[in-house]
Amino acid sequence: MSLADLPPFLFAVALLIAVHEWGHYRVARACGVKVLRFSIGFGRVLWRRVGRDGTEFTLSALPLGGYVRMLDERDGPVPEQQREQAFGQRPLRQRAAIVAAGPAANWLLAILLFAVVAWVGVELPRPVLGTPASGSLAERAGLQAGDWVRAVSPDGQQWQDIESLPALTAAVARAQALGEGLQLSVTDAQGHGAHSVKLDVERLAGRAPDAQLLAEIGLNPLQEPLISRVTPGGAGAQAGLVAGDRVLSIDGRTVLDAGQLRDAIRNAHDGDQPRRMAWRVERAGQVVELDVAPRLLQEAGGSVARLEVYVGAPPERVLVRRGFADGLWSGIEQSWDMAATTVRLLGRILIGEASVKNLSGPLAIADYAGQSARAGVTPFIDFLARISMSLAVLNLLPLPMLDGGHLMYHLFEGLSGRPVPEWWQRQLQRAGALILMLMMALALSNDLVSRFAGWH
After folding, report:
1. Residue 175 burial (CB < 10 Å; 0-12/13-18/19+)?
2. How confident is the model at residue 455 (pLDDT cuts 50, 70, 90)?
3. Where, by residue number, does the polypeptide cross the bilayer (predicted)?
4. Other CB atoms within 10 A of residue 243 CB
5. What's the topology of domain 227-311?
6. CATH of domain 125-221
7. Active site residue 21
8. 218-244 confidence digits (pLDDT tens)
9. Among residues 21, 139, 180, 289, which one is catalytic?
C-alpha cells in the first residue's frame, strides 16, 4: 500500500462504517431505543456534537471501525423513568431488527452503488478472446482467437449474458473458486456460428488466485497484431518495420491477433540459428512485404528470437449501460450473486476445498481502493459497492463478536423462550474474538505474502 492509496481507503472505510452504524441507529430510534453515542472510529475523540434527541455524535482518531452505544441494562443501571427506552426492554423482534439493520444498510448501499454504475455506464473490453496460452484450459476447450463469449452457464441450462471481459473473468474466477465447471456460449467476432464449449476450471479447484492460475486458464483479450513501437537499431527496425504496421500474415499464414504474432516471433529459430520470415503488413492503407530476420537471445529456457519491437494495441471496448429499472435489477442481482458466492467460498475454505489465499486483508483492500480511484469515479463506485457487500456478508457470519452472532442469540431466545445465559455469552464472545483475530491475521499474512512474493 502506498501513501497515495491511503485517502481513498480511509474514505471508503469511513463511509461504509457510517452507513452500517446509521442502519443500527435509525432502526433503534424507530423502535424507541435511546441511543447514547454514534461513533465513527475508536480512541481519542476528535469531534463531538450532541443531537436534538440527546445522542452524542463523535469522530475518533482511529477510523477503522465504529459503534452505536444504546441505553442497555447490561452496561449499567438504567433510571426507572428511562427503562422503556432500554434496548433489553424492547420486544425480541425489535431487538433483532436493530441488530440486522447494520448489515442491511450496507447491502442496500451496495445495491444502489451497483445500480449507479449500471446507470452511468462504463467502457470495458469486449469479451472477444485472443489466442489461448499454449497448454491452457482455453486451448484444450477449443477456443480460438476471435471467439466472442456471449453467455456463461454452470450447467448448460441457465445462462448469464456476458457483456464485457471483466464480467467473463469474474464468472471464471467464481467457478474456479467454487469447484464448478463452466460452459461458454461462443460466436465468431461478427456474431455468427454460435456454439458452446466447456471450460474445465473445476480441475483447478482449491488453487490460490494468482498469475500462474490465470495463465493455466488461458483467457486472453483479443489484441490487434499491431507493431506499436520499434526499438531504433533493433532487428525489427533493420527489417523495415515501423510503428503502426498491422501484420497480415507470416510465411503465408494469416495472423489473427497479437498473441499469435508474439508466438511466431519467439519461435522463429531452428536450434541456435534465427529463421527468416516473409511478412505482409498493412501500412497507411497499402500492403508491404518484408523479409524479417529476428535476433537470437539466450534465456533461462533456451534460445528465444526477438525483433525488439512492442506488439499489440488496446482491445476493443464497449460501453455497458442500463436504463433505470434494468440498472436497479442489475444491482440486486449483482449483490445477491456476490453474497451467495462469498458464503459458498467461505464454506469451501472451512472444509479445505478452497485455498485460504482467497481471503484478502487491509493491505490488498487499500491497493484496490487506490487503483480504482485512479481509474476514475465509476470504478471507485464499483469498488465501494463490492466492499459494502463484503462488509454486509462478514457481519452476518454467526460469530458472537459480529451482528450475525447476536442474531443467533435472538434466534435461540425465540426458539427456547429464554435468553442465552450470560456465562455462555462470555465464553462465546472469547471464542468469537479468537476466530476473528485468526481470520484477520490470515488475511494480513496473505497480503504480505502476495506483496513480497516476487522479491529475491
Report:
1. buried
2. very low
3. 6-25, 97-122
4. 12
5. Pdz3 Domain (2.30.42)
6. 2.30.42.10
7. yes
8. 888 888 899 999 999 999 999 999 999
9. 21
Asked, colleague to colleague, whether 125-221 and 227-311 share their fold, the answer is yes
Burial classification of residue 216, based on how many CB atoms lie within 10 Å of its CB (0-12 exposed, 13-18 middle, 19 or more buried): middle
Query: How far apart are the C-alpha atoms of 16 and 365, rounded to whole Å?
Result: 13
Cα–Cα distance measured from residue 270 to residue 253, given in angstroms and rounded to the nearest whole number: 18
Read off the pLDDT of residues 247-262 as tens digits, 9 standing for 90 and up.
999 999 999 888 889 8
Residue 371 CB burial class (10 angstroms; 0-12, 13-18, ≥19) = middle
Residue 51 CA to residue 57 CA, distance in Å, equals: 7
Q: Where are the domains of the chain?
A: 125-221, 227-311
Q: How far apart are CA 210 and CA 220, in angstroms?
A: 15
Say how far apart CA 145 and CA 265 lie, in whole Å. Answer: 17
Residue burial 262-282, b: 16+ Cβ < 10 Å; e: rest: bebbeebbeeeebeebebbbe
Phi, psi of 50 (to 5 degrees): -105, 125
CA distances from 13 to 66, 111, 223 (A): 10, 18, 37
pLDDT in tens, 388-431: 999 999 999 988 888 999 999 999 999 998 988 888 888 888 88
| ∠ CA 181-339-401, rounded to 5° | 130
Q: How many residues does the chain have?
A: 456
b/e map of 62-80 (b: 16 or more CB within 10 Å)? ebeebbbebbeeeeeebee
Query: What is the reported pTM?
Result: 0.79
Cell of 136: 491452457
93 has a pLDDT exceeding 90: yes
